[in-house]
Amino acid sequence: MLMNLDSRITSLKKNMLITSVLLACAFVVCALYLWTAVYRSCPKTLLHNVSRSLEEFLQEASNKNNFALQGIVVKDLSSDLVVEESGLDLKMFERGGQPEKILDPQGIFVEGNSAKFLFREESGFLLVEVSEAFFSKIFYDDVFSFALTDEDGYVLLSTVPELIGKKLKTDQMFINLSGNLKSIEWQYSDLMGGYIGVFIPISFYVKSFLPILLACISSFLAIWISSSRDESFLKSMKSAFSVVSKSVWFSVKEAENDRETNFVPVKTTFDELNELQSAISRLIQLEKASQMELHAMLNSLQDSVDELENAQKTLQEKNLQIISTLAEAIEIKDTSTYGHSRKMAELALSLAQELGITDPADLEAIRFGALLHDVGKIGIPEHILNKPGRLTVEEFEIMKLHTVYGERIVRNISGWDLVADIVRHHHE
Protein backbone atom coordinates (compact mmCIF):
# COMPACT_ATOMS: atom_id res chain seq x y z
CA MET A 1 0.00 0.00 0.00
CA LEU A 2 2.85 2.41 0.85
CA MET A 3 4.54 1.82 -2.50
CA ASN A 4 1.36 2.76 -4.35
CA LEU A 5 0.61 5.82 -2.18
CA ASP A 6 1.49 8.33 -4.90
CA SER A 7 -0.62 6.58 -7.50
CA ARG A 8 -3.50 6.29 -5.04
CA ILE A 9 -3.46 10.02 -4.28
CA THR A 10 -3.22 10.84 -7.99
CA SER A 11 -6.12 8.53 -8.70
CA LEU A 12 -8.07 10.13 -5.85
CA LYS A 13 -7.54 13.61 -7.26
CA LYS A 14 -8.56 12.43 -10.70
CA ASN A 15 -11.69 10.76 -9.39
CA MET A 16 -12.61 13.86 -7.38
CA LEU A 17 -12.21 16.02 -10.47
CA ILE A 18 -14.24 13.63 -12.62
CA THR A 19 -16.96 13.44 -9.99
CA SER A 20 -17.12 17.22 -9.71
CA VAL A 21 -17.28 17.64 -13.48
CA LEU A 22 -19.98 14.98 -13.76
CA LEU A 23 -22.02 16.67 -11.04
CA ALA A 24 -21.65 20.01 -12.77
CA CYS A 25 -22.62 18.50 -16.11
CA ALA A 26 -25.62 16.81 -14.50
CA PHE A 27 -26.63 20.16 -13.03
CA VAL A 28 -26.30 21.81 -16.44
CA VAL A 29 -28.30 19.06 -18.16
CA CYS A 30 -31.07 19.28 -15.55
CA ALA A 31 -31.11 23.07 -15.82
CA LEU A 32 -31.31 22.91 -19.61
CA TYR A 33 -34.04 20.30 -19.40
CA LEU A 34 -36.07 22.48 -17.04
CA TRP A 35 -35.51 25.52 -19.22
CA THR A 36 -36.59 23.56 -22.31
CA ALA A 37 -39.69 22.37 -20.47
CA VAL A 38 -40.54 25.98 -19.63
CA TYR A 39 -39.77 26.97 -23.23
CA ARG A 40 -42.29 24.43 -24.52
CA SER A 41 -44.93 24.64 -21.80
CA CYS A 42 -45.13 28.44 -21.47
CA PRO A 43 -46.59 29.15 -24.94
CA LYS A 44 -48.89 26.12 -24.78
CA THR A 45 -50.25 27.26 -21.43
CA LEU A 46 -50.79 30.78 -22.73
CA LEU A 47 -52.55 29.46 -25.82
CA HIS A 48 -54.76 27.20 -23.77
CA ASN A 49 -55.79 30.01 -21.42
CA VAL A 50 -56.47 32.52 -24.21
CA SER A 51 -58.39 30.02 -26.31
CA ARG A 52 -60.45 28.87 -23.34
CA SER A 53 -61.27 32.46 -22.30
CA LEU A 54 -62.39 33.47 -25.78
CA GLU A 55 -64.42 30.29 -26.21
CA GLU A 56 -66.12 30.93 -22.86
CA PHE A 57 -67.11 34.44 -24.00
CA LEU A 58 -68.48 33.05 -27.26
CA GLN A 59 -70.34 30.22 -25.50
CA GLU A 60 -71.92 32.65 -23.05
CA ALA A 61 -72.89 35.04 -25.84
CA SER A 62 -74.38 32.24 -27.96
CA ASN A 63 -76.60 31.20 -25.04
CA LYS A 64 -78.05 34.79 -24.87
CA ASN A 65 -78.70 34.47 -21.16
CA ASN A 66 -78.71 38.14 -20.05
CA PHE A 67 -75.46 38.63 -21.95
CA ALA A 68 -74.18 42.20 -21.79
CA LEU A 69 -70.50 42.85 -22.41
CA GLN A 70 -69.05 45.95 -24.04
CA GLY A 71 -67.19 45.05 -27.20
CA ILE A 72 -69.27 41.96 -28.07
CA VAL A 73 -72.50 42.26 -30.10
CA VAL A 74 -75.06 39.46 -30.46
CA LYS A 75 -77.65 39.54 -33.28
CA ASP A 76 -80.36 37.11 -34.43
CA LEU A 77 -80.27 36.39 -38.19
CA SER A 78 -82.79 34.66 -40.38
CA SER A 79 -81.85 31.66 -42.48
CA ASP A 80 -81.22 34.18 -45.30
CA LEU A 81 -78.69 36.07 -43.15
CA VAL A 82 -81.00 39.07 -42.53
CA VAL A 83 -80.80 40.84 -39.16
CA GLU A 84 -84.24 40.37 -37.60
CA GLU A 85 -84.39 43.63 -35.64
CA SER A 86 -83.13 45.97 -38.41
CA GLY A 87 -83.63 44.06 -41.65
CA LEU A 88 -79.95 44.47 -42.59
CA ASP A 89 -79.00 41.95 -45.27
CA LEU A 90 -75.69 40.21 -44.53
CA LYS A 91 -75.50 38.11 -47.69
CA MET A 92 -71.93 39.36 -48.00
CA PHE A 93 -70.99 36.74 -45.44
CA GLU A 94 -71.96 33.92 -47.77
CA ARG A 95 -69.13 32.28 -49.64
CA GLY A 96 -70.08 29.65 -52.17
CA GLY A 97 -73.60 29.50 -50.75
CA GLN A 98 -72.40 28.40 -47.31
CA PRO A 99 -72.21 30.74 -44.29
CA GLU A 100 -68.72 31.06 -42.82
CA LYS A 101 -67.94 31.11 -39.10
CA ILE A 102 -65.21 33.75 -39.34
CA LEU A 103 -65.73 36.56 -41.87
CA ASP A 104 -63.97 39.71 -43.11
CA PRO A 105 -62.18 41.77 -40.45
CA GLN A 106 -64.17 44.99 -41.09
CA GLY A 107 -66.64 45.61 -38.23
CA ILE A 108 -70.41 45.58 -38.84
CA PHE A 109 -72.02 46.61 -35.55
CA VAL A 110 -68.79 47.67 -33.81
CA GLU A 111 -66.18 50.24 -34.72
CA GLY A 112 -62.92 49.13 -36.27
CA ASN A 113 -62.07 45.55 -37.02
CA SER A 114 -63.88 42.56 -35.58
CA ALA A 115 -64.28 38.80 -35.77
CA LYS A 116 -67.71 37.36 -36.52
CA PHE A 117 -68.97 33.96 -35.48
CA LEU A 118 -72.16 32.40 -36.84
CA PHE A 119 -73.97 29.76 -34.77
CA ARG A 120 -76.74 27.80 -36.46
CA GLU A 121 -80.14 27.81 -34.73
CA GLU A 122 -83.52 26.26 -35.54
CA SER A 123 -84.92 29.48 -37.08
CA GLY A 124 -81.73 30.81 -38.60
CA PHE A 125 -78.36 31.95 -37.27
CA LEU A 126 -76.92 33.77 -34.28
CA LEU A 127 -74.21 36.35 -35.07
CA VAL A 128 -71.63 37.07 -32.35
CA GLU A 129 -69.28 39.95 -33.26
CA VAL A 130 -66.13 40.50 -31.18
CA SER A 131 -64.46 43.90 -31.58
CA GLU A 132 -60.75 44.52 -31.88
CA ALA A 133 -60.90 46.83 -28.84
CA PHE A 134 -62.40 44.06 -26.70
CA PHE A 135 -59.80 41.53 -27.89
CA SER A 136 -56.89 43.93 -27.22
CA LYS A 137 -58.25 44.91 -23.80
CA ILE A 138 -58.89 41.38 -22.58
CA PHE A 139 -55.67 39.82 -23.88
CA TYR A 140 -53.25 42.71 -23.48
CA ASP A 141 -49.86 41.70 -22.07
CA ASP A 142 -46.57 43.62 -21.72
CA VAL A 143 -44.50 40.68 -23.00
CA PHE A 144 -46.68 38.46 -25.17
CA SER A 145 -48.84 39.27 -28.20
CA PHE A 146 -51.85 37.37 -29.53
CA ALA A 147 -53.69 36.99 -32.83
CA LEU A 148 -56.88 35.34 -34.10
CA THR A 149 -56.96 34.12 -37.72
CA ASP A 150 -59.46 32.36 -39.94
CA GLU A 151 -58.84 28.88 -41.32
CA ASP A 152 -56.72 30.31 -44.16
CA GLY A 153 -54.43 32.21 -41.80
CA TYR A 154 -55.78 35.73 -42.37
CA VAL A 155 -55.49 37.76 -39.16
CA LEU A 156 -58.90 38.99 -37.97
CA LEU A 157 -57.99 40.30 -34.50
CA SER A 158 -54.63 40.93 -32.86
CA THR A 159 -53.03 42.86 -30.04
CA VAL A 160 -50.55 43.94 -32.75
CA PRO A 161 -52.61 46.23 -35.09
CA GLU A 162 -50.13 45.91 -37.97
CA LEU A 163 -50.97 42.20 -38.34
CA ILE A 164 -54.73 42.62 -38.94
CA GLY A 165 -55.67 41.66 -42.49
CA LYS A 166 -52.33 39.96 -43.17
CA LYS A 167 -52.01 36.28 -43.94
CA LEU A 168 -49.74 34.24 -41.70
CA LYS A 169 -48.57 30.69 -42.14
CA THR A 170 -49.86 28.66 -39.23
CA ASP A 171 -46.82 26.39 -39.48
CA GLN A 172 -44.20 29.14 -39.22
CA MET A 173 -42.24 29.28 -35.97
CA PHE A 174 -40.78 32.81 -36.03
CA ILE A 175 -41.86 36.30 -37.09
CA ASN A 176 -40.26 39.75 -37.10
CA LEU A 177 -42.53 42.37 -35.52
CA SER A 178 -41.25 45.96 -35.50
CA GLY A 179 -37.66 44.72 -35.56
CA ASN A 180 -38.17 42.21 -32.74
CA LEU A 181 -37.81 38.53 -33.53
CA LYS A 182 -40.54 36.48 -31.88
CA SER A 183 -41.42 32.80 -31.82
CA ILE A 184 -44.98 31.70 -32.63
CA GLU A 185 -47.15 28.92 -31.27
CA TRP A 186 -50.51 28.11 -32.86
CA GLN A 187 -53.61 26.30 -31.64
CA TYR A 188 -56.72 25.52 -33.68
CA SER A 189 -60.20 26.13 -32.20
CA ASP A 190 -63.17 24.18 -33.56
CA LEU A 191 -65.64 26.59 -31.95
CA MET A 192 -64.06 29.65 -33.54
CA GLY A 193 -63.18 27.90 -36.80
CA GLY A 194 -59.70 29.41 -36.83
CA TYR A 195 -56.32 29.65 -35.11
CA ILE A 196 -55.16 31.39 -31.95
CA GLY A 197 -51.51 32.43 -32.03
CA VAL A 198 -49.17 33.70 -29.32
CA PHE A 199 -46.02 35.68 -30.15
CA ILE A 200 -43.21 35.29 -27.63
CA PRO A 201 -40.14 37.57 -27.79
CA ILE A 202 -36.84 35.75 -28.11
CA SER A 203 -35.56 38.09 -25.40
CA PHE A 204 -37.99 36.39 -22.99
CA TYR A 205 -36.17 33.08 -23.43
CA VAL A 206 -32.77 34.76 -23.27
CA LYS A 207 -33.63 36.50 -19.98
CA SER A 208 -35.00 33.28 -18.51
CA PHE A 209 -31.80 31.44 -19.56
CA LEU A 210 -29.38 33.98 -18.03
CA PRO A 211 -29.79 32.77 -14.41
CA ILE A 212 -29.18 29.20 -15.58
CA LEU A 213 -26.07 30.30 -17.49
CA LEU A 214 -24.73 32.18 -14.46
CA ALA A 215 -25.40 29.16 -12.24
CA CYS A 216 -23.50 26.91 -14.66
CA ILE A 217 -20.52 29.28 -14.77
CA SER A 218 -20.53 29.51 -10.98
CA SER A 219 -20.57 25.75 -10.64
CA PHE A 220 -17.55 25.32 -12.93
CA LEU A 221 -15.66 28.06 -11.07
CA ALA A 222 -16.44 26.32 -7.80
CA ILE A 223 -15.08 23.08 -9.25
CA TRP A 224 -11.83 24.75 -10.31
CA ILE A 225 -11.30 26.42 -6.93
CA SER A 226 -12.18 23.26 -5.06
CA SER A 227 -9.80 21.18 -7.19
CA SER A 228 -6.92 23.57 -6.50
CA ARG A 229 -7.51 23.50 -2.76
CA ASP A 230 -7.91 19.74 -2.73
CA GLU A 231 -4.63 19.24 -4.55
CA SER A 232 -2.73 21.38 -2.03
CA PHE A 233 -4.37 19.64 0.89
CA LEU A 234 -3.63 16.18 -0.49
CA LYS A 235 0.05 16.99 -0.97
CA SER A 236 0.46 18.19 2.61
CA MET A 237 -1.42 15.19 3.91
CA LYS A 238 0.62 12.68 1.96
CA SER A 239 3.55 12.49 4.36
CA ALA A 240 1.38 12.28 7.46
CA PHE A 241 -0.74 9.60 5.88
CA SER A 242 2.36 7.54 5.07
CA VAL A 243 3.41 7.43 8.72
CA VAL A 244 -0.04 6.65 10.02
CA SER A 245 -0.70 4.02 7.37
CA LYS A 246 2.38 2.08 8.44
CA SER A 247 1.10 1.85 12.00
CA VAL A 248 -2.41 0.92 10.87
CA TRP A 249 -1.11 -1.64 8.39
CA PHE A 250 1.02 -3.28 11.07
CA SER A 251 -1.99 -3.53 13.41
CA VAL A 252 -4.12 -5.02 10.62
CA LYS A 253 -1.52 -7.68 9.94
CA GLU A 254 -1.47 -8.60 13.62
CA ALA A 255 -5.25 -8.94 13.60
CA GLU A 256 -5.15 -11.10 10.46
CA ASN A 257 -2.68 -13.45 12.16
CA ASP A 258 -5.00 -13.71 15.23
CA ARG A 259 -2.43 -12.02 17.43
CA GLU A 260 -3.27 -9.42 20.04
CA THR A 261 -3.57 -6.04 18.35
CA ASN A 262 -1.80 -3.09 19.95
CA PHE A 263 -2.29 0.05 17.88
CA VAL A 264 -0.02 2.96 18.86
CA PRO A 265 -1.21 6.37 17.49
CA VAL A 266 1.39 8.53 15.70
CA LYS A 267 1.30 12.27 16.40
CA THR A 268 0.84 14.38 13.24
CA THR A 269 0.13 18.03 12.40
CA PHE A 270 -3.40 17.17 11.27
CA ASP A 271 -5.96 17.20 14.06
CA GLU A 272 -8.37 15.18 11.97
CA LEU A 273 -5.78 12.44 11.40
CA ASN A 274 -4.91 12.40 15.12
CA GLU A 275 -8.59 12.10 16.01
CA LEU A 276 -8.93 9.29 13.49
CA GLN A 277 -6.07 7.38 15.11
CA SER A 278 -7.62 7.89 18.54
CA ALA A 279 -10.89 6.58 17.22
CA ILE A 280 -9.14 3.55 15.72
CA SER A 281 -7.46 2.85 19.06
CA ARG A 282 -10.79 3.08 20.89
CA LEU A 283 -12.45 0.87 18.32
CA ILE A 284 -9.78 -1.78 18.77
CA GLN A 285 -10.27 -1.74 22.53
CA LEU A 286 -14.04 -1.90 22.11
CA GLU A 287 -13.65 -4.74 19.62
CA LYS A 288 -11.63 -6.73 22.14
CA ALA A 289 -14.23 -6.20 24.85
CA SER A 290 -17.01 -6.99 22.39
CA GLN A 291 -15.32 -10.20 21.31
CA MET A 292 -15.10 -11.39 24.90
CA GLU A 293 -18.68 -10.40 25.63
CA LEU A 294 -19.89 -11.96 22.38
CA HIS A 295 -18.11 -15.22 23.19
CA ALA A 296 -19.77 -15.36 26.60
CA MET A 297 -23.17 -14.50 25.06
CA LEU A 298 -22.79 -17.20 22.42
CA ASN A 299 -22.02 -19.81 25.06
CA SER A 300 -25.00 -18.72 27.12
CA LEU A 301 -27.20 -18.61 24.03
CA GLN A 302 -26.16 -22.09 22.99
CA ASP A 303 -27.05 -23.40 26.44
CA SER A 304 -30.45 -21.70 26.19
CA VAL A 305 -31.02 -23.14 22.72
CA ASP A 306 -30.18 -26.62 23.95
CA GLU A 307 -32.60 -26.23 26.86
CA LEU A 308 -35.34 -24.94 24.55
CA GLU A 309 -34.82 -27.77 22.09
CA ASN A 310 -35.04 -30.34 24.90
CA ALA A 311 -38.13 -28.63 26.31
CA GLN A 312 -39.75 -28.50 22.88
CA LYS A 313 -38.97 -32.16 22.25
CA THR A 314 -40.46 -33.11 25.62
CA LEU A 315 -43.53 -30.95 24.94
CA GLN A 316 -44.04 -32.52 21.52
CA GLU A 317 -43.80 -35.99 23.02
CA LYS A 318 -46.35 -35.08 25.70
CA ASN A 319 -48.66 -33.51 23.12
CA LEU A 320 -48.47 -36.67 21.05
CA GLN A 321 -49.18 -38.79 24.13
CA ILE A 322 -52.18 -36.63 25.04
CA ILE A 323 -53.55 -36.67 21.50
CA SER A 324 -53.00 -40.44 21.21
CA THR A 325 -54.70 -40.97 24.56
CA LEU A 326 -57.65 -38.85 23.46
CA ALA A 327 -57.89 -40.80 20.20
CA GLU A 328 -57.85 -44.10 22.13
CA ALA A 329 -60.55 -42.76 24.46
CA ILE A 330 -62.73 -42.03 21.45
CA GLU A 331 -62.09 -45.50 20.04
CA ILE A 332 -63.07 -47.03 23.38
CA LYS A 333 -66.40 -45.23 23.06
CA ASP A 334 -66.71 -46.38 19.46
CA THR A 335 -65.89 -50.08 19.81
CA SER A 336 -65.94 -50.69 16.09
CA THR A 337 -62.92 -48.45 15.34
CA TYR A 338 -60.23 -49.70 17.74
CA GLY A 339 -56.76 -48.83 16.38
CA HIS A 340 -58.34 -46.90 13.51
CA SER A 341 -56.88 -43.46 14.42
CA ARG A 342 -53.31 -44.77 14.72
CA LYS A 343 -53.54 -46.53 11.39
CA MET A 344 -55.08 -43.43 9.81
CA ALA A 345 -52.17 -41.31 11.10
CA GLU A 346 -49.58 -43.71 9.64
CA LEU A 347 -51.39 -43.82 6.30
CA ALA A 348 -51.78 -39.99 6.18
CA LEU A 349 -48.07 -39.41 6.87
CA SER A 350 -47.08 -41.93 4.20
CA LEU A 351 -49.37 -40.26 1.68
CA ALA A 352 -48.03 -36.79 2.57
CA GLN A 353 -44.44 -37.96 2.02
CA GLU A 354 -45.41 -39.44 -1.34
CA LEU A 355 -46.91 -36.06 -2.29
CA GLY A 356 -43.63 -34.33 -1.44
CA ILE A 357 -44.79 -32.53 1.72
CA THR A 358 -41.66 -31.90 3.81
CA ASP A 359 -42.55 -28.98 6.06
CA PRO A 360 -42.38 -30.26 9.67
CA ALA A 361 -45.30 -28.06 10.74
CA ASP A 362 -47.51 -29.40 7.94
CA LEU A 363 -46.54 -33.00 8.68
CA GLU A 364 -47.29 -32.52 12.37
CA ALA A 365 -50.70 -30.99 11.54
CA ILE A 366 -51.50 -33.93 9.23
CA ARG A 367 -50.49 -36.40 11.93
CA PHE A 368 -52.57 -34.69 14.66
CA GLY A 369 -55.50 -34.26 12.27
CA ALA A 370 -55.46 -37.95 11.41
CA LEU A 371 -55.28 -38.97 15.07
CA LEU A 372 -58.14 -36.64 16.04
CA HIS A 373 -60.27 -36.93 12.92
CA ASP A 374 -63.02 -38.73 14.90
CA VAL A 375 -62.79 -36.60 18.07
CA GLY A 376 -66.26 -35.23 17.31
CA LYS A 377 -67.77 -38.65 18.04
CA ILE A 378 -67.70 -37.56 21.67
CA GLY A 379 -70.86 -35.63 20.86
CA ILE A 380 -72.63 -38.56 19.18
CA PRO A 381 -75.02 -40.58 21.38
CA GLU A 382 -73.70 -44.07 22.15
CA HIS A 383 -76.86 -45.83 21.04
CA ILE A 384 -76.21 -44.42 17.55
CA LEU A 385 -72.41 -44.73 17.64
CA ASN A 386 -72.43 -48.42 18.63
CA LYS A 387 -75.67 -49.50 16.97
CA PRO A 388 -75.08 -53.01 15.59
CA GLY A 389 -77.49 -52.69 12.71
CA ARG A 390 -77.96 -50.22 9.86
CA LEU A 391 -78.54 -46.57 10.86
CA THR A 392 -81.76 -44.85 9.97
CA VAL A 393 -81.71 -41.68 7.84
CA GLU A 394 -82.13 -39.51 10.95
CA GLU A 395 -79.45 -41.42 12.83
CA PHE A 396 -77.06 -41.12 9.88
CA GLU A 397 -77.57 -37.34 9.76
CA ILE A 398 -76.68 -37.19 13.47
CA MET A 399 -73.63 -39.38 12.85
CA LYS A 400 -72.39 -37.00 10.11
CA LEU A 401 -72.29 -34.17 12.66
CA HIS A 402 -69.21 -35.68 14.31
CA THR A 403 -66.98 -33.81 11.80
CA VAL A 404 -68.62 -30.51 12.77
CA TYR A 405 -68.24 -31.26 16.49
CA GLY A 406 -64.64 -32.27 15.94
CA GLU A 407 -63.78 -29.05 14.09
CA ARG A 408 -65.43 -27.00 16.84
CA ILE A 409 -63.33 -28.74 19.49
CA VAL A 410 -60.00 -28.47 17.62
CA ARG A 411 -60.56 -24.91 16.31
CA ASN A 412 -60.29 -23.60 19.88
CA ILE A 413 -56.59 -24.57 19.95
CA SER A 414 -54.39 -21.68 18.71
CA GLY A 415 -52.36 -22.49 15.61
CA TRP A 416 -54.38 -25.63 14.77
CA ASP A 417 -56.33 -24.24 11.81
CA LEU A 418 -54.97 -26.91 9.45
CA VAL A 419 -55.73 -29.66 11.99
CA ALA A 420 -59.29 -28.33 12.32
CA ASP A 421 -59.69 -28.35 8.51
CA ILE A 422 -58.54 -31.98 8.34
CA VAL A 423 -60.98 -32.99 11.08
CA ARG A 424 -63.84 -31.11 9.41
CA HIS A 425 -63.31 -32.48 5.90
CA HIS A 426 -61.84 -35.96 6.44
CA HIS A 427 -64.93 -37.60 4.88
CA GLU A 428 -64.81 -35.47 1.70
- The proportion of residues forming helix, as a percent range, comes to 55-70%
- Count the beta strands: 10
> How much is the radius of gyration in Å?
47 Å
The neighbouring-strand order within the major sheet is 7-6-10-9-8
- Counted up, domains total 2
Could you say which overall geometry the principal axes of the C-alpha atoms support? Answer: flat
What is the count of DSSP helices, taking H or I runs of 4+ residues? 10
Structural class: alpha+beta
Mean pLDDT: 76
Largest sheet: 5 strands, antiparallel
Give the low-confidence spans: 95-102
- Strand fraction: 5-15%
Distance between the termini: 74 Å
Order of helices and strands: HEEEEEHEEEEEHHHHHHHH
Write up this protein.
It is a single chain. By secondary structure, the protein is an alpha+beta fold. The chain has two domains: 5-209, no CATH class; 312-425, Hypothetical protein af1432. The chain is 57% helix and 13% strand. The protein has ten helices and ten strands. It has helices at 5-63, 132-138, 202-256, 271-333, 340-354, 360-371, 382-385, 393-400, 402-411, 417-425; strands at residues 72-78, 94-95, 98-99, 114-120, 124-131, 145-149, 155-158, 174-177, 180-189, 194-201. Strands 7-6-10-9-8 form a five-stranded antiparallel sheet. Helix 1 runs antiparallel to helix 3 and helix 9 (402-411) runs antiparallel to helix 10. The chain is flat, with a radius of gyration of 47 Å.
